[in-house]
Design a protein that fits this description.
Layout lengths: L2 E10 L2 E11 L4 E5 L6 H8 L7 E6 L2 E2 L5 H6 L2 E4 L11 H8 L6 H14 L1 H5 L10 H13 L5 E5 L7 H16 L3 E5 L3 H7 L2 E6 L2 E7 H5 L2 H7 L7
Parallel strand pairs: 3-8, 3-9, 6-7, 7-8
Antiparallel strand pairs: 1-2, 1-4, 4-5, 9-10
């Protein structure tokens, strides 16, 4: 097991945002967290990456408790968060955004190698490498956000709503990229409103509802679960 979240509680002041949430990630898996807005999906990722401090519970990464260490230390351990809304550096070029993703990498030769790998994986970014990030299309910005995360050579990638605001064609492209990243050896926790797409590439999934894990199982089981179909798949399972 590469990541274990156990009995996690998170508060925003008096609001109890996560209530005894537990889930796991095995090496090489894609695990989907699905649920409505406000269910606790993004809060879960923010707690794992150190942005939020849990009230109680534990987050264990490769056997080490990480709930009390800084986000910078978590990044150095190979756990990278690509947040909702892309949050690229709009005034910086594509090249500079990617360099920022590798800020903790002292080996400049390795950084150059990673940069070339990103341009190979995302040819559109190579074409726009000197262009300001804020002038890219929504799909290009999402590619840049993912590529910037990959520059840190993550062992675990936390992806928060990567399909948000994208056209159906671009959603397909982004999910193909996520699948390829996983097949190259990176374990992934995927937070998505698009439950059908998320479960179509995931190994397992957890359904969050008002801060609790309401359901868990294999992705295939969840795709055929009547509650999931009714609440998150538009009343059908896409077949």
């Amino acid at each position: 097991m590469i990541l274990n979240v156990a009995h996690l509680n998170v508060h925003y002041g008096p609001i109890h945002a996560l209530k005894d949430v537990s889930f796991t990630l095995q090496q090489g898996e894609i695990v989907a967290l699905i649920g409505a807005n406000g269910a606790g999906k993004s809060t879960s990722l923010n707690a794992i990456s150190g942005i939020l401090r849990p009230t109680s519970g534990s987050i264990t990464y490769r056997g080490e408790e990480i709930s009390a260490i800084t986000p910078q230390e978590i990044v150095r351990r190979g756990l990278i968060h690509v947040p909702e809304g892309r949050r690229i550096f709009a005034s910086m070029s594509v090249w500079e955004n990617l360099e920022m993703g590798a800020y903790g990498q002292p080996d400049r030769a390795a950084v150059k190698e990673h940069m070339e790998a990103m341009f190979t994986r995302f040819p559109r970014l190579r074409e726009r490498r000197n262009q300001a990030g804020g002038t890219l299309s929504g799909g290009e910005q999402q590619m840049l956000a993912i590529a910037r995360g990959l520059m840190a050579n993550p062992q675990v990638l936390l992806l928060d709503e990567p399909s948000m605001g994208l056209s159906p064609i671009l959603v397909e492209q982004i999910f193909d990229i996520i699948r390829e990243i996983n097949e190259s050896g990176t374990s992934i926790i995927l937070v998505e409103q698009n439950a059908l797409m998320a479960l179509s590439i995931a190994d397992r999934g957890y359904v969050l509802d008002t801060g609790r894990v309401a359901l868990e199982g294999s992705a295939d089981d969840l795709l055929h679960d009547p509650m999931v179909i009714s609440a998150y798949l538009g009343g059908n399972n896409g077949q």
